[in-house]
Amino acid sequence: MKITLRRYRLLSDFERVSQFMRLNFKKYQLGGNVPQPFWEYAHTHPYFNHSLTHRFGIWEENEEIVGVACYEMDVGECYFSTKEGYDFLKQEMVEYAETELSKRSADQHSLDVRVYDYEEYLIKLLVQKGYHKVYSEPIRVYNYGSGFSTRLLPEGFTFITLENENDLRKINDVLWRGFNHGDEPDDDLDSRLLMQSGPHFRKDLTAIIKAPNGEYACFAGMWVDGVNDFAYLEPLATDPRYRSLGLATVAVTELMKRTEQLGATYCFGGAPDFYPKIGFETACHREMWSKAW
C-alpha cells in the first residue's frame, strides 16, 4: 500500500497518535522515541507550543499511522516514532523535520534531534547529514520485582493525593521552586489547571508531601498508558527548603506501589543521580544530535 504524509490535526489526531504510541511500545525502551504518557504530558505542559502542532508530520498506510515526527515543547527540536519495520521512513522524516520543525532566524536554521542509543539506522542517517552528538543522558527504570523498601516521612509531614486536596497556588509554589525558577513564584495558576487537563491524568496518582506548616513540600505525578505494563513519572519536584529529607523517595515509592496494583511491573524515572540512589537502573541512553545551517 502507498504511504502518505500529512500534517497533524490537534483535535482529531491526539488520541489516534496516543494509540499508535501505545501499540508501538517495546518493553524497557521508549519505543520509537515517544511513549504515550510523554506525548500527553507535553500537550498539557505550560511551555508546549500548541499553535505550531500543525507542523507535526503523520505518515499513514491504509489509514493506519506508521510514523510521527513531532517536537516535545516547541520547534527547534524533534522526535521520530515509527511502527516496527518502517525504519526506512526515517530519512524522509529527517528531511521533513528540517523543513517544518527547525528553528528559524534571519539567516540560520537549527534542529536538535532526540535519539536513543539503540536507533543505529537513525544515528547513521544523522551523521551522513552533518549532525553531531552534543548530549547524552541515561533512561532509568525501576523493576518492581526488586520490591519496595519501607520509606517513612519525617515527623509532621503527610502524604496525600489530589483526591484529598488540590490547592493550585500551593502546587504552583512547589513546582516553581522545585524546578529552581527562584524564590518568588509567578501567579500563573491557569497553567496548573492545564497540567491536570489530560484525558489520562489521574488525581489518585498525583502525590503531595505536605509540610507541618501546610505548605506543599514535594509534588509527584505518575502516569499509566492503559496498554503497557509500565508507569511513567512526571513531574517530580521538591521545594529546595525541604530537600534531603527523603520526601521524593516516599512519594515515588508510594506511587510505584499504587501503579503495581494497576498492572505495572516497572517505572520510568529520570536522569538525575537521585534515581539510582533509590534503585533505578539504566535501560538505555537518550542522545541529542544537533545541526545548524
TrEMBL record:
The lineage of its organism: Bacteria, Bacillati, Bacillota, Bacilli, Bacillales. Gene3D superfamilies: 3.40.630.30. It comes from Paenibacillus riograndensis. Residues 158-293 form the N-acetyltransferase domain. SUPFAM superfamilies: Acyl-CoA N-acyltransferases (Nat). GO terms for molecular function: acyltransferase activity, transferring groups other than amino-acyl groups. Pfam families: Acetyltransf_1 (PF00583). It comes from the Bacteria. This is N-acetyltransferase domain-containing protein.
